[in-house]
Design brief:
The protein is an alpha+beta fold. The chain contains six helices and 29 strands. The protein has helices spanning 29-51, 108-114, 207-222, 319-324, 480-497, 505-517, and strands at residues 54-57, 65-68, 76-79, 83-86, 89-92, 122-123, 149-160, 183-194, 228-232, 257-263, 267-268, 273-277, 284-291, 294-297, 313-317, 331-337, 342-345, 362-366, 371-374, 377-379, 386-387, 393-395, 400-404, 409-410, 415-421, 426-427, 448-457, 460-463, 467-468. A six-stranded antiparallel beta barrel has the order 13-14-17-16-15-18. The chain has a five-stranded antiparallel sheet with strand order 21-12-10-25-26, with no helix packed on it.
Length: 518
């Protein structure tokens, strides 16, 4: 997630069940975040073990899909409400009910006539996190008349900060104070998939065939093949630099950092690019207006470390494109107008990006620069990002280097986190007994998939969802023999507890009468 973190310490293979706070100790964000991660991991693992890879409650299963075409200008899907679980992650498809405003006395009757109640379901075009665009041919639904297609769920998580959701900021702290905690949001997107992509040649496959083919496709898509290692090396000119924390330090940054190395453009190594940030990509600036290449910012950085400078590369984006995981060109800051809170970029942002205020446009700063010639080649940027070079150590800054393994396939948004510490003059990265850095898969993004329906035509969608019933059942009535045995045991228990201690009722009454006469 893009957040101002010290580091992430949760590793499921360590089998920690809780974080225990100790008195008199410094409290770190990493400890609280690890406790949250432990609880989330346990809850989702339990749900996945009980439910399976995906499924919904029998009486409230969500994401029932209807294909609607012909009678509309453009084909669409109806996505009905309810709950569904994918790999233990809870998804909610219920559409929130609209609020009721206080009526205007002068126009109350007119407003009542003009107000239209929105449908209780989502559609393919207005689902909350997919941001499909009818103007983009690639976003349109296939025609089932030509070939059936599968509708599936794409599920992942992304971070949200106050730049995207201003309600997260506590205004009582003042405009000059930084924001507080960020949020993690579950993103679900209902998308189409052709049978050809699933390697299904049959035009009328069964549910079992579609589910089996989809599971194979999802397994390939969920597991990325890119791997990376990180290390810190002592620079050749370290002896000439008096600012080093220690004479033998290899990481020579003046502060502790959490480096984020993130894939920008996806594909094979020859096409892929990456970007990096020493602040985990958390330096963002809300945008108030866009005028050509000039960007009006809502605020500037709080200090020299968190502001913008000429030469910085930034990502101009908004909530919609962040959710779509699209690689937009990274633009260079060419000019600053500090009194006016404006920056001039090297080019105008992509059409359709950041033009709608309700999508909360923002600028995210990245810290890579175009480097000098090194080892016979120049570190020229491509689309503002750094080209991936496999099989060699690539310098970031201050002695931090990264290494991409050969033969990887790269996906936009996948990232690795590299904590760098001044106390050790090194980076925190797993190594083997010989202290060689180990290749690691991405820390995210974890992608999850589930099939929903096989669309064959109008009002002809084969439901591919799975459902589960409640575990609790009514207590069955006992048979007559069991009831008689229980009654006999009850009588014996009463007899054992009576004052007569097992004597008959007649004997007890007679003895009581004699005692009374005396």
């Amino acid at each position: 997630m893009h957040a101002d973190l010290s580091r992430l310490t949760f590793h499921p293979e360590r089998h920690y069940s809780a974080v225990v706070a100790q008195q008199g100790r410094v409290q770190l964000d990493a400890d609280a975040n690890e406790q949250t991660a432990i609880q989330l991991h346990r809850a989702r693992t339990l749900a996945a073990d009980l439910i399976g890879r995906y499924g919904g409650p029998r009486d409230a299963a969500g994401f029932r899909v209807e294909y609607v075409g012909g009678k509309h200008d453009i084909d669409t899907l109806y996505i009905h409400g309810g709950r569904y679980y994918v790999d233990g992650i809870l998804l909610d498809a219920d559409r929130p009910a609209p609020g009721t405003p206080v009526p205007d006395e002068d126009t109350e009757a007119e407003d009542a006539e003009d107000t239209a109640t929105p449908p209780s379901y989502w559609t393919y075009w207005d689902q909350p996190d997919a941001f499909r665009d009818p103007e983009k041919p690639g976003d349109r639904l296939p025609s089932p008349a030509q070939s059936p297609f599968v509708v599936y769920l794409n599920v992942w998580e992304r971070s949200v900060n106050a730049a995207e959701d201003p309600a997260l900021r506590e205004v009582a702290l003042g405009a000059t104070m930084p924001d507080t905690a960020a949020r993690v949001k579950v993103v679900w997107q209902v998308l189409p998939l052709s049978l050809a992509a699933l390697a299904i040649e049959d035009a009328d496959p069964s549910k079992e065939v579609v589910r089996a083919a989809f599971d194979k496709w999802a397994q390939r898509r969920a597991a990325g093949t890119a791997r990376l290692a990180a290390r810190s090396e002592r620079p050749d000119h370290a002896d000439e630099d008096p600012c080093l924390v220690r004479p033998d330090a290899r990481y020579r940054g003046p502060e502790n950092q959490l480096y984020r190395v993130e894939v920008h453009a996806d594909g094979e190594a020859k096409d892929a690019t990456f970007k990096w940030s020493r602040e985990n990509g958390s330096v963002v600036f809300p945008v108030d207006a866009l005028d050509g290449t000039w960007v009006q910012l809502a605020s500037l950085g709080h200090d020299d470390k968190l502001d913008l400078d000429v030469g910085d590369f930034v990502e101009f984006t908004d909530t919609a494109h962040a959710s779509r995981l699209e690689a937009l060109p990274l633009l260079r800051v060419e000019e600053l107008d500090l009194p006016g809170r404006r920056v001039r970029l090297s080019a105008e942002p992509e059409p359709g990006v950041g033009r709608l205020p309700h999508l909360h446009p923002f600028v995210r700063r990245w810290d890579h620069r175009e480097g000098p010639r090194r080892r016979g080649r120049t570190a020229a940027l491509k689309g503002g990002a750094v080209p991936v070079a496999e099989g060699e150590w690539l310098p970031l800054e201050d002695g931090v280097e990264v290494y991409f393994a050969k033969g990887g396939t790269y996906r936009t948004g996948d990232h690795w986190l590299v904590p760098a510490r001044t106390a050790t003059g090194s980076v925190e990265w797993p190594t083997d007994p010989a202290r060689r850095p180990l290749l690691q898969g991405p820390a995210g993004i974890a992608r999850h998939f589930a099939p929903l329906a096989l669309v064959k035509g109008e009002e002809s969608a084969v439901d591919l969802r799975l459902a589960f019933g409640p575990l609790a059942n009514g207590i069955p009535a006992a048979d007559e023999a069991t009831l008689a045995a229980e009654e006999q045991a009850h009588r014996e228990e009463i007899a054992a507890e009576s004052p007569s201690h097992g004597r008959s009722q007649t004997t007890a009454e007679a003895e009581s009468a004699v005692e009374g006469d005396e």
